[in-house]
Amino acid sequence: CASAGKTDDAGLYAMIWWLADPAHSTVILTSTTGKMIRRRIWPVIQRLYHGFCTDSHKYGTPKYDFPGDLIDSEMTLRAKFNDTRRDSKSAIFAKAVKDGNTSKAAADIQGMHNRRVLLIIDEATDTPPAIFEVTTNLIAGTSEFQCLVIGNPASRLDQHGRFSEPRLGWNKVSIDDEEWETVIQLDGKPGLCQRFDGEKCPNVISPRSETKFLLSVPQLE
User: Fold this and answer.
1) 104: Cβ contacts below 8 Å, ≥ 6 apart
2) Comparing C-alpha atoms, which of 126, 133, 29 is closest to residue 75?
3) How far is CA 4 from CA 66, 202, 203, in A?
4) Number of C-beta neighbours around residue 182 at 10 A
5) Residues 6 or more apart from 34 whose CB is under 8 A from it?
6) Distance of alpha carbon 197 from alpha carbon 4, whole angstroms
7) Which end of the chain is less enclosed by CB atoms within 10 A, N or C?
8) How far, rounded to the nearest angstrom, does the alpha carbon of residue 62 sit from its chain's CA centroid?
9) In angstroms, rounded to a whole number, what is the distance separating the alpha carbons of residues 189 and 145?
10) pLDDT (tens digit, 9 = 90+) per residue, 110-162?
């Protein structure tokens, strides 16, 4: 459902995953347009970065040194190294994939090789197929590759629907299912589809303890 916190949680996951090994990790965050990225997933990265820096400086002397530099104008969080190196690959990047030249956006993403690569496709139902096709190239030579596809379902036949297809077929899942294995993905293993049911949102189950930004009872009605 909409307003389930999918994008916010994806941003948090991206930051933690990258921090596990920033010197050898690339995270690519995509959304349809630059405006939507700045409204949706990039603010999560900004908030986490600035929150860390604020907490670290609370008592005068920084408690920790964040292992990256935020370059907001480029929507990039780049790894810092102890020497003078500047690695343009080891970073968190946010990319618009529907603005202007889709082929150029796909080529830019395709060239981001590293030991670890995480690709997060937000608004997947409106993302051009060319962006999904670059995953074949991205996975080559990695020791760890993950792809997280997020969207509010529109069709079983679009890219988001194809990623969500149950391993045993659509007739094997029902409206009551919230999680299932998908068809075999690029790594030769099934993926995992998680469905968030609006009628089971915490705000709907316990309306008195409303959680900000999640679906509410009036919205559901």
Assistant:
1) none
2) 29
3) 29, 10, 10
4) 17
5) 75, 96, 99
6) 9
7) C
8) 29
9) 12
10) 889 999 999 999 999 999 999 999 988 899 889 999 999 999 999 999 999 99
